[in-house]
Amino acid sequence: MSVNAYERVWMWGAGGLIVLFLAAIGITAVTQAVQPPSHIETINPATLADHPEFGDPQVKTTADGKVVVSMVAEMFQFRPDPIEVPVNTPITFRITSADVVHGMMIVGTNANAMAVPGYVSQFTITFPKAGDYDIACHEFCGLMHHAMVGKITVKGGRP
Fold first, then answer.
1. Hey, CA dihedral for 63, 67, 72, 77, is it positive or negative?
2. What is the DSSP-derived secondary structure letter of residue 107?
3. How many domains is the chain partitioned into structurally?
4. How far apart are the C-alpha atoms of 87 and 128, rounded to whole Å?
5. Both 49 and 30 in a single domain?
6. How far is residue 149's CA from residue 13's CA, in Å, rounded to a whole number?
7. Predicted confidence (pLDDT) per residue in 65-77, tens digit
8. Within 10 Å of residue 86's Cβ, how many Cβ atoms?
9. Percent helix, strand and coil across the chain, each rounded to 5?
């Protein structure tokens, strides 16, 4: 069987691209590690009620003025609810799940995180204006998923 020179070039080129792509995926998986995004912080969901931070989730202001919101997502609620935070202040949200995978989306912002049992997700956001913001679960978590909502009230400044 005779293969034309041009066809041979295209076959070797396509094969080379496949090898290049597979090598890029393999190198990235080994050097970057395959893990959840953000920092890696684990927590035992079975003992969540006894945890010092997530046993009684709340909004705390640290000594240096930073605001940290500890949250627990569980069938079919976010705790604490409602949440009150100041305007124009960086707010760090730390969220975990007590049961299944949940999502946390603050409507009208780009804040979007997963609440996975056994992990703590963390992100920081600043609310530029006062008002009420809704929290919605964006991962199907059961029959009452549609009712899993919360509220953030941003106070201070002009609404």
1. positive
2. T
3. 2
4. 6
5. no
6. 52
7. 889 999 999 988 9
8. 17
9. 25, 35, 40
Q: What pTM does this model have?
A: 0.72
d(CA 94, CA 56): 13
- Kindly list the distances between the CA atom of residue 17 and the CA atoms of 13, 32, 80, 127, in Å, as whole numbers in the listed order: 6, 22, 51, 46
Q: Which two tokens stand for residue 70?
A: 């500890």
Kindly report the backbone phi and psi dihedral angles of residue 147, in degrees, each rounded to the nearest multiple of 5, phi listed first.
-100, 5
Does residue 119 sit in the same domain as residue 146?
Answer: yes
Task: Name the DSSP letter for residue 13.
Answer: H
Side chain identity at residue 105, one-letter code? M
Helix (H) or strand (E) holding 32: helix 5-32
Range of the structural domain that residue 145 is part of: 45-155
Q: Give residue-wise pLDDT tens across range 77-125.
A: 999 988 999 999 999 999 999 899 999 999 989 899 999 999 999 999 9
